[in-house]
């Protein structure tokens, strides 16, 4: 660069130049996801949130499946087999639109599909994964119970043998996609420990009830599953995995997507606040010209940069050597809490307009209150990190 060459203008949304770390192929993945969000989600999501419904869930699943976004990080069976960074970038763009939409993709691909892909029989995989990858079948993941969230070892759902069959009884709570699913991966206590079952949702005794009156993740289907004498054939069970290792490994896959997704919600709120600060005038000039507003924006930009860099590092590491559970916890704990702070700060910059659904800020803020505690509360991730640091188990 010569002395006469003008310096390129800084990108306010990427002051650190993180985009330079992405390959052209990764940028193309991101652009494709952003395009579908721009056309099929963003114009409608505020109305979905306000009504507390996702009326196009099946149509949206098929559209996302046609792009290869469902189970995109899995190999074979109609899955795209893309990298962890590709998947992370997709989660970031989806959650920049809405956490509920990212949850639809995350539960489908990283919980239900991943469980079948990792632990299922060849028959399970052939029966379900191609249809789930295309969006023609929707799945859910039944682990959390009404009285057992952070402590899944206390689950009360039971599976007992009856001749060659299995019979399941119990209930699961706060299950994304539950009442629109074609298949449920259900974890139940057995005489052999916790085991996973592939449950077609048209099996007699299986019912799913949509949970209403939510003030968060309103553009998402959340359900209670009830299993009342659900009879399954012997081959419905995952054949090898025993104990909590199975469901917890699935949760780590989904938590990784949250590390990226939370930065999408944060970016959307930051972008909105930055634009608003340049347009909203008080005392004769835009509020972006006042020191306190600039301090807020600078702090938000720093945390957004830090969180995105952490997500990028974990993604590259996952592709290269894999991730340890405490590394995923580090990312989820930091990025969700910082994203929530960014949304709350953005709300203050927008003032009263910050609570209006004309802007995305309050929607992201409300959604992140759920993201903060699902798939591991801050307390649980803090203790996972603490155990890694000290070697001492402080969970009990």
UniProtKB/TrEMBL annotation:
<feature type="domain" description="Acyl-CoA oxidase/dehydrogenase middle">
    <location>
        <begin position="140"/>
        <end position="230"/>
    </location>
</feature>
<dbReference type="InterPro" id="IPR009075">
    <property type="entry name" value="AcylCo_DH/oxidase_C"/>
</dbReference>
<keyword id="KW-0809">Transit peptide</keyword>
<dbReference type="GO" id="GO:0046949">
    <property type="term" value="P:fatty-acyl-CoA biosynthetic process"/>
</dbReference>
<dbReference type="GO" id="GO:0004361">
    <property type="term" value="F:glutaryl-CoA dehydrogenase activity"/>
</dbReference>
<dbReference type="InterPro" id="IPR013786">
    <property type="entry name" value="AcylCoA_DH/ox_N"/>
</dbReference>
<dbReference type="InterPro" id="IPR036250">
    <property type="entry name" value="AcylCo_DH-like_C"/>
</dbReference>
<protein>
    <submittedName>
        <fullName>Acyl-CoA dehydrogenase</fullName>
    </submittedName>
</protein>
<dbReference type="InterPro" id="IPR052033">
    <property type="entry name" value="Glutaryl-CoA_DH_mitochondrial"/>
</dbReference>
<dbReference type="InterPro" id="IPR046373">
    <property type="entry name" value="Acyl-CoA_Oxase/DH_mid-dom_sf"/>
</dbReference>
<dbReference type="InterPro" id="IPR037069">
    <property type="entry name" value="AcylCoA_DH/ox_N_sf"/>
</dbReference>
<keyword id="KW-0560">Oxidoreductase</keyword>
<dbReference type="Pfam" id="PF02771">
    <property type="entry name" value="Acyl-CoA_dh_N"/>
</dbReference>
<feature type="domain" description="Acyl-CoA dehydrogenase/oxidase N-terminal">
    <location>
        <begin position="23"/>
        <end position="136"/>
    </location>
</feature>
<dbReference type="Pfam" id="PF02770">
    <property type="entry name" value="Acyl-CoA_dh_M"/>
</dbReference>
<dbReference type="InterPro" id="IPR009100">
    <property type="entry name" value="AcylCoA_DH/oxidase_NM_dom_sf"/>
</dbReference>
<dbReference type="GO" id="GO:0033539">
    <property type="term" value="P:fatty acid beta-oxidation using acyl-CoA dehydrogenase"/>
</dbReference>
<dbReference type="InterPro" id="IPR006091">
    <property type="entry name" value="Acyl-CoA_Oxase/DH_mid-dom"/>
</dbReference>
<keyword id="KW-0274">FAD</keyword>
<dbReference type="GO" id="GO:0050660">
    <property type="term" value="F:flavin adenine dinucleotide binding"/>
</dbReference>
<dbReference type="Pfam" id="PF00441">
    <property type="entry name" value="Acyl-CoA_dh_1"/>
</dbReference>
<dbReference type="GO" id="GO:0000062">
    <property type="term" value="F:fatty-acyl-CoA binding"/>
</dbReference>
<keyword id="KW-0285">Flavoprotein</keyword>
<comment type="similarity">
    <text>Belongs to the acyl-CoA dehydrogenase family.</text>
</comment>
<feature type="domain" description="Acyl-CoA dehydrogenase/oxidase C-terminal">
    <location>
        <begin position="242"/>
        <end position="389"/>
    </location>
</feature>
């Amino acid at each position: 660069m010569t002395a006469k060459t003008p310096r390129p203008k800084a990108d306010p949304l990427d002051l650190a130049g993180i985009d330079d770390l992405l390959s052209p192929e990764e940028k193309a993945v991101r652009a494709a996801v952003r395009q579908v969000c721009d056309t099929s989600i963003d114009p409608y999501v505020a109305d979905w949130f306000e009504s507390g419904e996702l009326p196009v869930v099946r149509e949206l699943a098929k559209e996302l499946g046609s792009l290869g976004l469902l189970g995109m990080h899995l190999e074979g069976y109609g899955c795209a087999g893309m990298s962890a960074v590709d998947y992370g970038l997709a989660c970031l763009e989806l959650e920049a639109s809405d956490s509920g939409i990212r949850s639809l993709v995350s539960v489908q691909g990283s919980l239900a599909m991943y469980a079948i892909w990792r632990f299922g029989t060849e028959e399970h995989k052939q029966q379900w994964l191609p249809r789930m990858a295309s969006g023609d079948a929707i799945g859910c993941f039944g682990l959390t119970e009404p009285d057992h969230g952070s402590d899944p070892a206390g689950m009360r759902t039971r599976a007992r043998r009856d001749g060659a069959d299995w019979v399941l009884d119990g209930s699961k709570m706060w299950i994304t996609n539950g009442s629109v699913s074609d298949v449920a991966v259900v974890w139940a206590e057995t005489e052999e420990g916790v085991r996973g079952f592939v449950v077609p949702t048209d099996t007699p005794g299986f019912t799913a009830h949509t949970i209403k009156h939510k003030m968060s993740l309103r553009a998402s289907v959340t359900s209670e599953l009830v299993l009342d004498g659900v009879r399954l054939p012997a081959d419905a069970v995952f054949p090898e995995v025993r104990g909590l290792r199975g469901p917890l490994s699935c949760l780590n896959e989904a938590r990784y997507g949250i590390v990226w997704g939370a930065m999408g919600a944060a970016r959307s709120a930051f972008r909105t606040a930055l634009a608003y600060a340049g347009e909203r005038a008080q005392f004769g000039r835009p509020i972006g010209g006042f020191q306190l507003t600039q301090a807020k924006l600078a702090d938000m930009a720093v945390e957004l940069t830090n969180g995105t860099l952490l997500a990028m590092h974990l993604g590259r590491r996952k592709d290269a050597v894999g991730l340890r559970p405490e590394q995923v916890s580090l990312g989820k704990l930091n990025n969700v809490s910082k994203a929530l702070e960014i949304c709350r700060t953005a709300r203050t910059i927008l003032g009263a307009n910050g609570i209006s659904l004309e802007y995305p800020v309050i929607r992201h803020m409300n959604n992140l209150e759920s993201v903060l505690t699902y798939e591991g509360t801050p307390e649980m991730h803090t203790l996972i990190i603490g155990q890694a640091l000290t070697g001492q188990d402080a969970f009990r």
